[in-house]
Design brief:
The complex is a heterodimer of chains A (350) and B (239).
Chain A (H helix, E strand, L loop, with lengths): L23 H22 L5 H23 L8 H18 L3 H25 L4 H20 L10 E2 L19 H22 L1 H11 L1 H6 L4 H27 L1 E2 L1 H5 L1 H14 L6 H21 L14 H16 L3 H11 L1
Antiparallel strand pairs in A: 1-2
Helix pairs in contact in A: 1-6, 2-6, 2-9, 2-11, 2-12, 3-4, 3-5, 3-9, 4-5, 4-9, 6-7, 7-9, 11-12, 11-13, 11-14
Chain B lengths: L1 E12 L2 E12 L3 E5 L6 H8 L7 E6 L2 E2 L5 H6 L2 E3 L12 H9 L6 H14 L15 H14 L4 E5 L7 H16 L3 E5 L3 H7 L2 E6 L2 E6 L1 H4 L3 H8 L5
Parallel strand pairs in B: 3-8, 3-9, 6-7, 7-8
Antiparallel strand pairs in B: 1-2, 1-4, 4-5, 9-10
Helix pairs in contact in B: 3-4, 3-5, 4-5
The chains are: A mainly alpha (350), B alpha/beta (239).
Chain lengths: 350, 239
């Protein structure tokens, strides 16, 4: 019998072996470049009326991209991302209102605090082996706990929340611009592009590959020398930091934040829905989902504010948005279980 | 020099003793076969040694270090790597990516890890599945993928749990040859297997387990003549 088996020392594959062709990272960055250009020219082609829809969509996109890091790639289904969004929003509001600190710095501090809190929560959940629905419920419970806490803390203005002082004039350092300024789109757009660049690098890096291996089979991953806990916590930390950044920008854009806007359960849902609709565990899925959910949220909102006569009874009804998200979710889960982008990607491959 | 010492290793699951007082010393570069009927505790023994399960009693010394109670990832990082009888591929990844996860242990960059992984894949003759999704591989392919991932860690001691099971006879010969080559290259192997031809072809010593306990340990060819071994495992007509 001939020796078909080669020794490793004389069979280190040639670097240019066609089977090693790996365009995934490059292709993703090309797509991101196109996206960056589209976002850059968006304020010029967008009617000013639609600015708030664009900003809301960008905030949803940031939240969903962040949630997807931990729950899509990491497989740790969070139902409590409001906790981290709220920390970002409140740290920003508190420091800006009480100390006049630059929102950029407040944003970083909020991200750092959210990361610490997220890692602590995830560590506790994982240490006591909460998985699946139990993990999701535990994260939900923590978020609700923060909501109650904030509503009862004097120094956080209890249920009243914070109104940001309007400084007058434009200041990049203080992140305040005249109403309708293009910067209100460019800034979250730039943050989103940077975040997506980070996601692309992360999922193809060593810790990113590890976390996907752990998600697929934690026992097998551990047997290959992967520290499962540390790997998961890295994904959690990144996810929480980015979610807090979205929260801080939310406060800055609306000049106001209260407990419900920051820590309410619907905030957690708003992080999940775009990701699930677009496709969890994919790079572009959350963005695709946000492009649908963002305008839809605004549409629902405007209809409820001033409903046409035949649905006049809906005026001022709260919670309809969540009901519509749920209906949309059911349709997606039934017909495109991997989300819009996820399903299309799979068909394309075949 | 001994690479692995197992002393009085015991595992009880609420009343059931799955592994009962196992004592073995495995020399560096040795190939030790492990046989026994289903339920004899072979796979549990592997889970104890590789840190998936904590032992109830006993001590495991690997490469001069007491690794009793170490978590699985630390044991694997120390160079003691197992495969799983029921294959556990990372289903969302291709075969190459599966192996590259293990190659990442040594190589930080994606490029180097993938290059190393491809070399390992070629070595276990998984070439035609390089970029196939791991979930689409047939059993024989998944068995090799298990082996490839373990080899990509460049272990000192490899615990193989039925890598030949499920392979059609035509696929067995090259696999047996590969294992022989790995051993010749200096790899120490613990080898659970039911296919006696393979066990006898490869093993330098043989451990026979029965109901969790160590029934016999010694020369494989003498074992097949041993009355107790034959009765417990091989069956009357083997003798």
């Amino acid at each position: 019998m001939t020796r078909a088996v080669e020794r490793p020392q004389d069979s280190v594959a040639a670097a240019d072996d066609p089977r090693l062709k790996d365009n995934e990272t490059r292709n993703a960055f090309v797509t991101l470049g196109v996206l960056a250009i589209v976002l850059a020219v968006l304020p010029f082609v967008l009617n000013e009326r639609f600015e708030s829809i664009a900003v809301l969509t960008l905030i949803f996109a940031l939240m969903a991209v962040a949630w997807n890091l931990m729950s899509g790639f990491g497989g740790l289904f969070s139902f409590g991302h409001a906790a981290f969004f709220g920390i970002g929003a409140y740290v920003d509001a508190y420091l800006v209102v009480e100390y006049g600190i630059s929102p950029w710095i407040a944003m970083l501090l909020g991200a750092a605090l959210a990361t610490l809190v997220g890692i602590a929560i995830a560590f506790l959940c994982l240490r006591y082996q909460l998985a699946g629905a139990y993990f999701a419920l535990a994260t939900f419970a923590f978020a609700q706990m923060f909501l109650l806490l904030v509503q009862n803390l004097e120094f956080l203005h209890k249920t009243e929340g914070f109104n940001l002082p309007i400084l007058g004039g434009e200041s990049f350092w203080m992140l305040q611009f005249r109403q309708g300024s293009d910067l209100y789109i460019w800034i979250p757009a730039a943050i989103l592009v940077l975040a997506l660049a980070g996601v692309i690098l992360y999922v193809h890096s060593r810790p990113g590959q590890f976390v996907q291996a752990v998600r697929d089979d934690a026992v097998a991953a551990a047997s290959l020398g992967i520290n499962v806990m540390r790997t998961k916590l890295i994904a959690v930390g990144l996810s929480c930091a980015l979610t807090a950044v979205a929260g801080a920008f939310y406060t800055q854009y609306y000049f106001f934040v209260g407990p419900q806007q920051a820590f309410g359960a619907q905030v957690s849902i708003e992080a999940i829905i775009p990701a699930v609709i677009g496709g969890i565990g994919t790079i572009w899925g959350p963005l695709v989902g946000a492009l649908i959910v963002g305008p839809l949220a605004e549409l629902i909102d405007s209809v409820l504010r001033d409903p046409p006569a035949f649905i006049g009874f809906l005026q001022g009804v709260a919670g309809l948005d969540v009901a519509i998200y749920a209906a949309l979710l059911i349709v997606i889960v039934l017909f495109m279980p991997k989300g819009i982008y996820g399903t299309l990607k799979e068909r394309w491959r075949r | 020099m001994s690479l692995l010492q197992v002393e009085g290793l015991t595992k009880r699951f609420s009343g059931l003793t799955a592994v009962d007082d196992i004592n073995i010393t495995v020399a560096d570069k040795e190939f030790l076969g492990i046989v026994g009927p289903n339920g004899a505790g072979k796979t549990t023994l592997f889970s104890l040694i590789s840190g998936q399960l904590p032992p109830t009693h006993g001590r495991i010394v690997f490469d001069g270090v007491d690794i009793t109670g170490w978590p699985a990832d630390k044991v694997a990082s120390a160079g003691l790597v197992r495969t799983f009888q029921l294959m556990r591929p990372f289903e969302s990844m291709t075969a190459l990516e599966n192996v590259a996860v293990a190659s990442h242990h040594r190589f930080r960059s994606r490029r180097d890890a993938r290059r190393h992984a491809l070399a390992v894949i070629e070595r276990v003759q998984l070439d035609r599945y390089v970029n196939a999704p791991a979930g689409s591989l047939p059993t024989a392919g998944l068995k090799r993928l298990e082996l490839a991932r373990a080899l990509a860690l460049e272990p000192k001691l490899l615990l193989l749990d039925e890598v030949l099971a499920g392979l059609v006879p035509a696929d067995r010969a090259p696999m047996i040859e590969l294992l022989g080559d790995l051993h010749a290259d200096g790899l120490t192997v613990l080898f659970i297997e039911h296919i006696m031809a393979a066990v006898l072809a490869l093993s330098e010593r043989l451990l026979v387990m029965h109901e969790g306990a160590q029934l016999a340990l010694g020369n494989p060819h003498e074992m097949t003549q041993d009355r107790a071994v034959v009765e417990a495992y091989l069956g009357e007509d083997y003798a």
